[in-house]
């Protein structure tokens, strides 16, 4: 879904003339779950203030038809594998971008986000689906399987996140 998204699907604070807004919204057109009664268009909110500011910088000059990721899914996968390799994450762990959704769910749950809010944020209708995400990812956490060096690399890269986004200039 995100690989096919266009600039017109992102609603930034500046788009609605509310620069003080700390979230942006992304419209998901033709979601996988549309045949389960959730509608042809859905949305999700991005609430990380640093990332919203980054999106403002990165997308402010883009035309509505501009793809958010102007490359192929194969290019995305190659970049994903290169990133994991540079962090020292072995390929046999089979980490995929899809796992970020479940990992994000567990992260928000551990921060105290309520079950109904998690379901809304993830666009999930059945609590059993959410339970499977939480149970599955909690049992399969890859971090303990990593070498100390890989764990340090991930921690160091993570600490740079806000600075890298702030340094970005479109």
From TrEMBL:
<dbReference type="GO" id="GO:0006310">
    <property type="term" value="P:DNA recombination"/>
</dbReference>
<dbReference type="InterPro" id="IPR011010">
    <property type="entry name" value="DNA_brk_join_enz"/>
</dbReference>
<keyword id="KW-0233">DNA recombination</keyword>
<dbReference type="InterPro" id="IPR013762">
    <property type="entry name" value="Integrase-like_cat_sf"/>
</dbReference>
<protein>
    <recommendedName>
        <fullName>Tyr recombinase domain-containing protein</fullName>
    </recommendedName>
</protein>
<dbReference type="GO" id="GO:0003677">
    <property type="term" value="F:DNA binding"/>
</dbReference>
<dbReference type="InterPro" id="IPR002104">
    <property type="entry name" value="Integrase_catalytic"/>
</dbReference>
<dbReference type="GO" id="GO:0015074">
    <property type="term" value="P:DNA integration"/>
</dbReference>
<feature type="domain" description="Tyr recombinase">
    <location>
        <begin position="1"/>
        <end position="148"/>
    </location>
</feature>
């Amino acid at each position: 879904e995100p690989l096919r998204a266009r600039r017109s699907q992102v609603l930034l604070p500046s788009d609605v003339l509310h620069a003080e807004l700390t979230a942006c919204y992304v419209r998901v057109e033709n979601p996988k779950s549309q045949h389960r009664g959730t509608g042809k268009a859905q949305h999700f909110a991005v609430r990380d203030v640093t990332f919203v500011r980054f999106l403002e910088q990165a997308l402010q000059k883009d035309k509505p038809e501009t793809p958010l990721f102007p490359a192929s899914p194969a290019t995305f996968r190659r970049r994903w594998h290169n990133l994991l390799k540079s962090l020292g994450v072995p390929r046999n762990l089979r980490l995929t971008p899809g796992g970020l959704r479940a990992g994000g769910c567990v992260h928000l749950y551990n921060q105290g986000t309520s079950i109904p809010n998690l379901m809304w944020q993830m666009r999930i209708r059945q609590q059993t689906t959410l339970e499977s995400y939480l149970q599955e990812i909690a049992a399969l956490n890859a971090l303990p399987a990593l070498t100390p060096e890989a764990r340090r690399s991930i921690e160091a890269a993570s600490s740079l996140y806000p600075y890298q986004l702030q340094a970005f200039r479109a």
